[in-house]
Amino acid sequence: MVLNYIWIAFFLISFVIAIVRLGLYYFGYPQYGGLEIFPEIMKAAFDMAKSSVVDISFALIGILTLWMGLMKIAEKSGMINILAKLIGPFFHKLFPDLPKDHPSVGLIMMNFSANMLGLDNAATPIGLKAMESMQELNPNKDTAFDPQIMFLVLNTSGLTLIPVSIMTFRFQAGAADSSDVFIPILIATFCSTLAGLITVAIYQKINLFDKVVMAYLGGLIAIIAGVVWYFATLPPDRIGPISSLVSNFILFSIIASFIFLGLKRRINVFEAFVEGAKEGFDVVVRIIPYLVGILVGIAVFRASGAMDYLVGGLTYLIGLTGLDTSWVPALPTALMKPLSGSGARAMMIDAMANGKADTFAGRLACIFQGAADTTFFIVAVYFGSVGIKKTRYSIPAGLIADLFGVIAAIAVAYLFFPVK
């Protein structure tokens, strides 16, 4: 229901702003727009509708086909059940409605692992498979199930240990040290994830002070601290290559373990792959309407100028308080991130353009980009893939996680990169 109202708001707000801008043009204020306003909005809508299918959905077909095939090997070889048993005690506390050793537990674990390593192409197909597995247990097929909400919100919080792509963009933008945002991003994304976890736990009355939960969370914090310490000891020019090597080594090792275990269990590995791969195309077809809908709404909102006015209004209000506004030029990245990953990436690149990669705003835009994930995109794709229409409190909880990620990003930016 929330997504329905937000989607309607994208179009109606955009329409009102476009009408106002057109009226101002006719009354002698050409700086606010012109006759091209509505053509630009419609062009943005049509271009995004095409891009949603051609650039995103078609690209997903190959990726999903590959990973759905690999997931079927993992399922038939018993690897998913092994992972479920390893992480079962912790996940049973966070996902009490999932039976112990249920296959979805292993899939959730693999999805989180891929996200933490910054491997989006692997994480999304595994996440869709996990959502599908949980949907089998969902008593109300059109309404989000508690475990699905917990899973989705933790995904939208975007916990990433190694933000390789962001460091690459900083290098391309001419940053003196492309990895200087690594630790700030890690801190900000961890705060976002923790906020999302606490929010959903409150909604679902989950006891986070349980000794099992505390033990696993303590272990996770120790791992993150270890990663921070290790990369902090590396020369700046070695962080990117080593993080990329570690991420992809772990990923290919997982794939090899699927195949090895399948061989050991004497299953027909290739046939299992093909059987699972066939599901990839079906999943893409199911999510296309949701994908087109949400991305076109976002494109219209941007093309109408609504996003620019929103940022400008916030800048003005913050300036009235007398607070430092050095962080405001990076705000478009934070505002766009819940809506569109590619849009936020474009905002981040723009914030670093023309030699601004090492400015406070340039660095903060990168931290914003890594602090959370695309809440509305994830809701549309993950829930759309299994036909869920009633998302309950998923979006508010995801946005709360995003908000804490933004606040943490600003705080750590001032801590690591003091404004002179």
Task: Give a description of the structure.
- The protein is mainly alpha-helical.
- It has 17 helices and no strands.
- It is globular and about 75 Å long.
- The model has no long low-confidence stretch (mean pLDDT 82).
Q: What would a concise description of this structure say?
A:
This protein is mainly α and 420 residues long.
Helix coverage percent = over 70%
Mean pLDDT across all residues, rounded?
Answer: 82
Strand content: under 5%
Largest sheet: none
What's the shape? Answer: globular
Helix and strand string, N-terminal first? HHHHHHHHHHHHHHHHH
Low-confidence runs of at least 5 consecutive residues: none
Please give the count of helices. 17
Tell me the structural class: mainly alpha
Cα gyration radius (Å):
22 Å
Distance between the termini: 46 Å
Secondary structure: number of strands: 0
Summarize this structure as a short list of keywords or feature phrases.
single chain, mainly alpha, 76% helix
Topology overview:
Elements: H1 2-26, H2 37-77, H3 79-94, H4 103-116, H5 120-135, H6 146-156, H7 164-172, H8 182-204, H9 211-232, H10 236-264, H11 269-303, H12 306-320, H13 331-336, H14 341-352, H15 360-371, H16 375-384, H17 394-416
Helix pairs in contact: 1-11, 2-5, 2-10, 2-11, 3-4, 4-5, 6-8, 6-16, 6-17, 8-15, 8-17, 11-16, 14-15, 15-17
